[in-house]
Amino acid sequence: MAKPANTDPAEWVDRYGDYLFRYAMLRLRDRSTAEDLVQETFLAALKDFGSFTGKSSESTWLVGILKHKIIDHFRHQAREAPLGENDLREHPDPSSFDGSGHWTSGPADWGGNPADLYREKKFLDQLAKCLSGLSPNHANAFTLREIEGADTGEICKVLNVTETNLWVILHRARMLLRRCLEANWFE
Amino acid sequence: MLSCKDVTQLISESMDASLPIGKRIGVRLHLLICKFCLRYKRQLLLIRETARHLAASEEPYGSPTGEPLSVGAKERIRESLANP
After folding, report:
1. How far is residue B33 from each of residues B3, B36, B38, B39, measured CA to CA in Å?
2. Beta-ladder partners of A103
3. Backbone phi, then psi, for B20, in 5-degree steps?
4. Quick one: which of B8, B37, B41, B19 has its CA closest to A92?
5. What is the complex's ipTM, to 2 decimals?
6. Percentages helix, strand, coil for chain A, rounded to the nearest 5?
7. pTM strictly above 0.95
């Protein structure tokens, strides 16, 4: 069967390298892991070239392979470093609340029209930066939920945690991200 | 009576699963009278929106955020593809 004209593996790196790398970086937050998985993606694609039907676009096909590799990596990370006591402590920031559970100094007013913030590239970059400051388990859970849009059942399987624990992790991740954004963006 | 600390946990939980009716009503009532928790909720939703936007911004022809693949890494990958 004739291949569509645009599938010459020699051009892949120039054509899709940056795209796949940024995709991997956002989710993995580590340059060398991202580079490795992009390389593995191209190699797997080369091996599997015969099965590429051209039904989906080449970039969709490649990113699909990469996505699997990223999720495998998360699974591996969760096995290597399972959740610890630290990951599950409900409030990473106990000073936010007083003894009866009321805010000591509540969240700051982010001002202006916060709904427009996500259109600002700098704000996007700041969120990515704050995300890379979380522990791998927290960052991976947040990434799967909010960047990949996976449902909690799937995420529990990948990270090998119960649903209750996942809620605690996500709660904690969101609280830490909020605090990091407030400290770095709005001060 | 739910405390603010409880409510922040429930706000997050409600973003992942639907809360049982009692808790849902408790949170709603709390948000009517607590501007900090309401603000907290709006900020978490904004963070969700921003994360989705981040995911969309790196579509092949979107305006990407973050650095490209380094020249060295491209070279390495090209080589590994030529001699798999």
Report:
1. 12, 9, 9, 12
2. A97
3. -60, 150
4. B8
5. 0.89
6. 70, 0, 30
7. no
Q: What is the CATH number of the domain that holds A13?
A: 1.10.1740
Q: Give residue-wise pLDDT tens across range A137-162.
A: 999 999 999 999 999 999 999 999 99
The domain limits of chain B are 4-82
- Alpha-carbon distance of A140 to A84, in angstroms, equals 15
A119 and A72 in one domain?
Answer: no
Closest chain A residue to the Cα of B77, Cα to Cα: A39
Which positions in chain B touch A40 (Cβ < 8 Å)?
none
If we measure between CA atoms, which residue out of A111, A33, A95 comes closest to residue A66? Answer: A33
In chain A, how many domains are there?
2
Contacts of B66 in chain A (CB under 8 A): 22, 25-26, 125, 128
Residues of B in contact with A16 (CB under 8 A): 60
Neighbours of A77 (CB within 10 A): 18
Domain hosting residue A62, numbered range: 9-80
Same domain, A118 and A181: yes
